[in-house]
From TrEMBL:
<keyword id="KW-0597">Phosphoprotein</keyword>
<feature type="transmembrane region" description="Helical">
    <location>
        <begin position="87"/>
        <end position="103"/>
    </location>
</feature>
<keyword id="KW-0902">Two-component regulatory system</keyword>
<keyword id="KW-0547">Nucleotide-binding</keyword>
<feature type="transmembrane region" description="Helical">
    <location>
        <begin position="37"/>
        <end position="53"/>
    </location>
</feature>
<dbReference type="Pfam" id="PF02518">
    <property type="entry name" value="HATPase_c"/>
</dbReference>
<feature type="transmembrane region" description="Helical">
    <location>
        <begin position="65"/>
        <end position="81"/>
    </location>
</feature>
<keyword id="KW-0808">Transferase</keyword>
<keyword id="KW-1133">Transmembrane helix</keyword>
<keyword id="KW-0067">ATP-binding</keyword>
<keyword id="KW-0812">Transmembrane</keyword>
<feature type="domain" description="Signal transduction histidine kinase subgroup 3 dimerisation and phosphoacceptor">
    <location>
        <begin position="168"/>
        <end position="234"/>
    </location>
</feature>
<protein>
    <recommendedName>
        <fullName>histidine kinase</fullName>
        <ecNumber>2.7.13.3</ecNumber>
    </recommendedName>
</protein>
<feature type="region of interest" description="Disordered">
    <location>
        <begin position="311"/>
        <end position="368"/>
    </location>
</feature>
<dbReference type="GO" id="GO:0016301">
    <property type="term" value="F:kinase activity"/>
</dbReference>
<feature type="transmembrane region" description="Helical">
    <location>
        <begin position="134"/>
        <end position="150"/>
    </location>
</feature>
<dbReference type="Pfam" id="PF07730">
    <property type="entry name" value="HisKA_3"/>
</dbReference>
Amino acid sequence: MPVTSSLISRMLRLGVIVLVGAGQAHTALVAGPPSIILTSTLVLSLALALLPFKVAGRRSADTPIPLIALGAATIIAVALHELTPNGTPALVLLACVVAAAGRRPLPQSLAIALTAIVSLLVAGAITGDVTRNLTLAFSTSLVFLVAYAARQRKAIRQAEAREAVLAERARIARELHDILAHSLSAQLVHLEGAKLLLRAERTDEALDRVTRARDLAKSGLEEARRAVAALREDPPELPTALRRLAEDFESTTHHPCTLHISGPEHRLTPEAELALTRTTQEALTNIRRHAPGTPATIDLTFSTTWCDLRITNPTPPTHHPPNSSAPEHRSPKEGAGQQRPPNDVGAKQRPPHDIAAEQRSSGGGHGLIGMRERAELLGGTLTAGADDHGFTVHLRIPA
């Protein structure tokens, strides 16, 4: 039979009961029949209170028997404390209070502690030795408070551990969502372009779009498979991660992506570095989707208190008349570089509402909304909108 924590706990409780009986046995035999009867009843009460057993198919912990037995053991310990001169009954009394504080709900454990204190005061008043019992009553109160505080501290640690597990699950889910959204949205753009090129009978260009979509699907699947394991390992340093994203942008679009890093470089918290990396990835994806053929610039600035990240699409967004067949310029909340180029194949043949619906269905904008929520959780801010330099996504988080 394997030794488990439950078996060890039962053996320890049985050992406590045996030690109590052995410690009280000699004094009980000397004190006479009343002490012998009380000691036997005390051992039986402790057995009912501490050892698990079943009653009519129910666990003893689900019945009031342990609480009643613990109360009886408390009262008997007070009685033995008055009959026998040694300190064993006082130790048993304190053990009963500790067991109640550590194992029973607060109302029940408080009832056991009050029973012990009241019994001591009443017994002291009967025997005329109030001072001796008053000291033990004070010690009982102090032991109860310490035991209950230790139990609360343990409960807090357990709650923090559960919360950490839930936070880790949420983080993994968010990362998987970002990975799949990044991959699938780019695939949709390429497949939609392939569909329009096939309608225009430009099969070679359509085949190239389909090939790119297939490559994106393969890389997205591989990244998703690595995500869970990679999340629990040490991620690469932030500058290294940003350089990889810039190189991926250049290899995919054949346009430059310039990375500028200024300030004293230092490691941030894993959550902060992850937010900076994912925001850069989302912004570059939006530039590829909504402003193809344009370069990008990444500016990362370190300071002692803050870390600033700017991803800029240098080409100013094209303004369209209200009734133009090109879609309206989206609000800053919906992403970086969101304009669809007016020369997109087939754009002029479709009504404006069809184009807008297609862009909404491709998941555009939701990524940066998620990045904004992540920035707020870290105590930072994220803004996205057009300025003198083009369309800029700006993330600022504490360092």
